[in-house]
Amino acid sequence: MLSVSLLSALVATASIADAHFHFGRLAVNGEWKPLMQYIRNKTSPFEDEPWTPYQNWNTRDYFFPTYATDLPNSVRCGRGNLAWAPKTDILRVKAGDTMEFVAFGGYPYEWNDTELFQFEGCPEGRGVCSSKWSGGMTKLQHFGPVLVHLSQVPEGQSLTSYDGSGEWVKIHTTGFKIVDGGKPWWLAYNGLDYQSNGQPERFIFKVPKQTPAGQYLMRVDLAWPGFVYKLGADLISDVQGQLYPSCAQIEVESDVTGSLPKGIKIPEDLQPKSQGMQTSLEMYNNQKVDEGYVYPGGPLWDGEKLIEDMAPTKME
């Protein structure tokens, strides 16, 4: 007989394809930009590497999740993104500017349906809303940390052809707070208010003032961690996590020159067993926080130094 915990894990695995989303719009200093103007699109359908044993197909649709074992360019900025790079505008921002991304579901041909999606006049200045779906199509559909990285375009290369194979420096994480005696409450998925489970927390961040002038890929992603389930010493299940990357093309105006500090490599440092990319089943089921859990994506750059991106260890 299956245990309740194992059954819940299997149900979660079976429902992987039921809820997808895409980071398709951004704002600078509170001003929302047109959909996909500065964000590389994705090719759909796209032939990627298969994920086994849970999925053995490799034809991926627009909103299918990305896995760390997919093709490197898919993990960096989305499936087939390089084909769209020359068609994507470059957003000019200043070091110190405030930025925000918004996620929503649906297919591109549905975005013009004003019954499904509204991109203007949304409550609280949000970048997307829906009068039909009560927010279900206009929010993140999975828990996990939202990560923002920068990758500086190498000298001699062009932003509209750069593949992101250089280093990536993390400049923002929206993670969780601890509630109800030790449970993780994922802010971008659940919202700030633990009692009312209201609107998801907006992941608003700043381009560090110390960012050197130059062109960058800005990568936003939600990392839905995988989990490992053990019964005694025997490994029962080892479920790979999911990624939802999008990349904006930006040029930073700054008085600072030089390069960013040392970063991570993608996909090499976002593998299924990389730091923060796998949890216990108890943490996956939001029952408790694993001791010493560190968010994935490498250390966090605060503009002056790299710091370990530790998750909270106690209730606020």
From TrEMBL:
Q: The organism sits in which domain of life?
A: Eukaryota
Q: Name one Pfam family in it.
A: AA9
Q: Which residues form the signal peptide?
A: 1-19
InterPro entries in the record: AA9, AA9_LPMO
Catalysed reactions, as listed in the record: [(1->4)-beta-D-glucosyl]n+m + reduced acceptor + O2 = 4-dehydro-beta-D-glucosyl-[(1->4)-beta-D-glucosyl]n-1 + [(1->4)-beta-D-glucosyl]m + acceptor + H2O
Q: What is the protein named?
A: AA9 family lytic polysaccharide monooxygenase
Q: Which cofactor does it need?
A: Cu(2+)
The free-text domain remark for this protein reads: Has a modular structure: an endo-beta-1,4-glucanase catalytic module at the N-terminus, a linker rich in serines and threonines, and a C-terminal carbohydrate-binding module (CBM).
Top-level EC class: oxidoreductase
Q: Where in the cell is it found?
A: Secreted
Q: Which keywords describe this protein according to UniProt?
A: Carbohydrate metabolism, Cellulose degradation, Disulfide bond, Polysaccharide degradation, Secreted, Signal
Native organism: Amniculicola lignicola CBS 123094
Q: What is its EC number?
A: 1.14.99.56
Which stretches make up the Auxiliary Activity family 9 catalytic domain?
Answer: 20-285
| GO MF entries | cellulase activity; cellulose binding
The record's function comment reads:
Lytic polysaccharide monooxygenase (LMPO) that depolymerizes crystalline and amorphous polysaccharides via the oxidation of scissile alpha- or beta-(1-4)-glycosidic bonds, yielding C1 and/or C4 oxidation products. Catalysis by LPMOs requires the reduction of the active-site copper from Cu(II) to Cu(I) by a reducing agent and H(2)O(2) or O(2) as a cosubstrate.
Its GO CC terms are: extracellular region
One Gene Ontology biological process: cellulose catabolic process
Major subcellular location class:
secreted
